[in-house]
């Protein structure tokens, strides 16, 4: 089983910029992004999220998002994806960075989730 990351942001520049940071610690981890709406506006797109899932070469995906309203599109995309997707309500940058570095180090999903727990945002 291989693990990858999908990043969802309301702003395409954020979604496309964060992998530059993550690649510093996780050059071998498949990272895909979905930023902004289909017409380039601020927001999220279920179609872009589905493409990010499809284009990720990993068997299972750890998904991170920037704002709560992205969660709804992520959840809908997860229902339609053939891949197993794990959704995390963590601090966006810190959660993705932690997960990417641990995947790169070969840490198990259970242990990654233990490390993400302290970064979880309370609803």
TrEMBL record:
<protein>
    <recommendedName>
        <fullName>phosphoenolpyruvate--glycerone phosphotransferase</fullName>
        <ecNumber>2.7.1.121</ecNumber>
    </recommendedName>
</protein>
<keyword id="KW-0808">Transferase</keyword>
<dbReference type="InterPro" id="IPR012844">
    <property type="entry name" value="DhaM_N"/>
</dbReference>
<comment type="function">
    <text>Component of the dihydroxyacetone kinase complex, which is responsible for the phosphoenolpyruvate (PEP)-dependent phosphorylation of dihydroxyacetone. DhaM serves as the phosphoryl donor. Is phosphorylated by phosphoenolpyruvate in an EI- and HPr-dependent reaction, and a phosphorelay system on histidine residues finally leads to phosphoryl transfer to DhaL and dihydroxyacetone.</text>
</comment>
<dbReference type="GO" id="GO:0047324">
    <property type="term" value="F:phosphoenolpyruvate-glycerone phosphotransferase activity"/>
</dbReference>
<dbReference type="GO" id="GO:0009401">
    <property type="term" value="P:phosphoenolpyruvate-dependent sugar phosphotransferase system"/>
</dbReference>
<dbReference type="Pfam" id="PF03610">
    <property type="entry name" value="EIIA-man"/>
</dbReference>
<dbReference type="InterPro" id="IPR004701">
    <property type="entry name" value="PTS_EIIA_man-typ"/>
</dbReference>
<dbReference type="InterPro" id="IPR039643">
    <property type="entry name" value="DhaM"/>
</dbReference>
<dbReference type="GO" id="GO:0016020">
    <property type="term" value="C:membrane"/>
</dbReference>
<dbReference type="GO" id="GO:0019563">
    <property type="term" value="P:glycerol catabolic process"/>
</dbReference>
<keyword id="KW-0418">Kinase</keyword>
<feature type="domain" description="PTS EIIA type-4">
    <location>
        <begin position="2"/>
        <end position="123"/>
    </location>
</feature>
<comment type="subunit">
    <text>Homodimer. The dihydroxyacetone kinase complex is composed of a homodimer of DhaM, a homodimer of DhaK and the subunit DhaL.</text>
</comment>
<dbReference type="InterPro" id="IPR036662">
    <property type="entry name" value="PTS_EIIA_man-typ_sf"/>
</dbReference>
């Amino acid at each position: 089983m291989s693990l990858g990351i999908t990043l969802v942001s309301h702003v395409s520049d954020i979604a496309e910029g964060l992998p530059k940071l993550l690649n510093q610690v996780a050059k071998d981890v498949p990272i895909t992004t979905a930023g902004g709406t289909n017409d380039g506006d601020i927001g999220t797109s279920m179609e872009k999220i589905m493409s990010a899932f499809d284009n990720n070469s990993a068997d299972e995906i750890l998904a991170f998002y920037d704002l709560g309203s992205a969660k709804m599109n992520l959840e809908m995309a997860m229902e339609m994806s053939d891949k197993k997707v794990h959704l995390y309500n963590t601090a966006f940058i810190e959660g993705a960075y932690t997960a990417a570095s641990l995947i790169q180090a070969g840490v198990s999903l259970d242990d990654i989730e233990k490390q993400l727990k302290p970064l979880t945002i309370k609803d």
